[in-house]
C-alpha cells in the first residue's frame, strides 16, 4: 500500500484502541492510486475478517469520513475529511511541526529560513526563522504573500507544478513588475521554470525585493509539489546558492519526513 508513512506499521501499540487504529489505517490507505475501497479489498489488504472491515467502513461513513456509493457499494473519502483539512490549515500546526527544522537551518546557514505553501496566485509564508545575520525584514514574514512569478520562493514550487495546470494559472494573467529584474514575460518565465527543474533549485537576486538574494527548493509530499523551502538574505551576504544548497536540500527532506510520517 502506498499511502502515508503514518500507516507503515500496521500493529497497534499496547495501550491504544485497536478499533480506532484500524479505522485510521483505512483512511490513511487512500491516495491518488486508491480513490475508493470495497469491503473485500479492505479485509484482504489488512488481513481482517470481512465483518470487521464492514463495520469499520460503515462507522467511518456514519461520521462523514467516508461516502458510501449505494450502486457500487464502494467507499470514498467523505466531507468530514474536508472539515479537518480546513481546520488543519488554520491551526498553525504546520508551523509548529517545521519550526525546529527551520531553526536548525537558519542557525547553520546564518540567514533567514522560511517555508511557504501555495495560496491562490501566490506563495504564503507559514513559518520563518531568522538567522544570526539578523532579520530579512523589519516586520513579520509569516503570512507574507509572494507573487507566483517573482523570486525563488515561488519559482521553486511552480516549476514543478504540472505544465497544463501551471499554464492555466499564468496565461492571460498580468504579472506585476516589482524591480527591474522581475520577469514579466511568460515565455521567459517558462524558460526559468525549465532551468529550475533541471538543477533542482531556484536562485534569484532582487526579483521581488531589491538587494535580497534567495535560494529555494521544492518540498514534495508523496511525489507531488507541496510548497517551497527558502533561504534569504541581503545580496552582500549571499554571493551564491551553492554553499548553502546542501543544507537546504537536507532540510527539505526533513520537512517531507515530518509531514508524511516517514523516518
The largest sheet is:
6 strands, antiparallel
Strand adjacency order, main sheet: 6-5-4-9-8-7
Helix percent band: 40-55%
Overall mean pLDDT: 89
SSE string, helices as H and strands as E: HEHHEEHHEEEHHHEEEH
Number of domains: 2
Radius of gyration: 22 Å
Indicate the low-confidence ranges by residue numbers. none
Strand content: 15-25%
CATH class descriptor of the largest domain: Alpha Beta
| Count of β-strands | 9
Q: Judging from the principal axes of the Cα atoms, what is the shape?
A: elongated
| Number of separate helices | 9
Domain HTH iclR-type: 17-79
GO molecular function, one term: DNA binding
Protein name: IclR family transcriptional regulator
Domain IclR-ED: 80-261
What does this structure look like?
- With 263 residues, the protein is of the alpha+beta class.
- The protein folds into two domains: 5-81, Arc Repressor Mutant, subunit A; 92-260, GAF domain (Beta-Lactamase), CATH 3.30.450.40.
- It has helices at 18-28, 39-46, 50-62, 79-90, 93-109, 152-158, 163-170, 186-199, 245-260; strands spanning 36-37, 66-69, 74-77, 112-119, 122-129, 145-147, 202-205, 212-221, 224-234.
- The strands form two sheets. The chain has a six-stranded antiparallel β-sheet, with helices on both faces. A three-stranded antiparallel β-sheet has the order 1-3-2.
- Strand 2 (66-69) and strand 3 form a beta hairpin.
- The longest helix has 17 residues, at 93-109.
- The chain is elongated, with a radius of gyration of 22 Å.
- It starts with 17 loop residues before the first helix and ends with a helix.
- The mean pLDDT is 89.
- This is IclR family transcriptional regulator.
- Residues 17-79 form the HTH iclR-type domain.
- Keywords: DNA-binding, Transcription, Transcription regulation.
Amino acid at each position: 500500500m502506498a499511502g502515508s508513512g503514518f500507516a507503515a506499521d500496521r500493529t497497534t501499540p499496547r495501550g491504544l484502541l485497536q478499533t480506532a487504529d484500524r479505522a485510521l489505517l483505512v483512511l490513511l490507505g487512500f491516495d491518488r492510486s486508491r480513490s475508493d475501497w470495497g469491503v473485500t479489498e479492505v479485509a484482504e489488504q489488512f488481513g481482517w475478517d470481512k465483518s470487521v472491515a464492514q463495520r469499520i467502513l460503515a462507522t467511518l461513513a456514519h461520521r462523514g469520513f467516508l461516502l458510501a456509493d449505494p450502486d457500487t457499494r464502494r467507499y470514498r473519502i467523505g466531507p468530514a475529511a474536508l472539515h479537518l483539512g480546513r481546520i488543519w490549515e488554520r491551526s498553525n500546526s504546520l508551523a509548529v511541526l517545521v519550526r525546529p527544522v527551520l531553526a536548525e537551518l537558519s542557525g547553520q546557514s546564518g540567514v533567514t529560513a522560511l517555508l511557504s505553501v501555495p495560496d491562490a496566485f501566490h506563495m504564503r509564508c507559514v513559518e520563518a526563522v531568522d538567522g544570526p545575520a539578523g532579520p530579512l525584514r523589519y516586520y513579520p514574514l509569516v503570512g507574507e504573500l509572494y507573487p507566483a512569478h517573482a523570486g525563488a520562493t515561488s519559482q521553486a514550487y511552480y516549476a514543478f507544478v504540472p505544465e497544463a495546470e501551471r499554464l492555466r494559472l499564468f496565461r492571460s494573467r498580468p504579472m506585476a513588475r516589482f524591480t527591474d529584474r522581475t520577469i514579466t514575460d511568460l515565455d521567459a518565465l517558462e524558460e526559468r521554470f525549465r532551468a529550475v527543474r533541471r538543477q533542482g533549485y531556484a536562485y534569484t537576486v532582487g526579483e521581488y525585493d531589491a538587494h535580497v538574494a534567495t535560494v529555494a527548493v521544492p518540498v514534495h509530499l508523496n511525489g507531488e509539489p507541496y510548497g517551497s523551502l527558502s533561504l534569504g538574505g541581503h545580496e552582500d551576504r549571499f554571493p551564491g546558492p551553492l554553499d548553502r544548497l546542501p543544507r537546504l536540500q537536507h532540510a527539505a527532506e526533513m520537512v517531507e519526513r515530518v509531514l508524511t510520517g516517514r523516518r
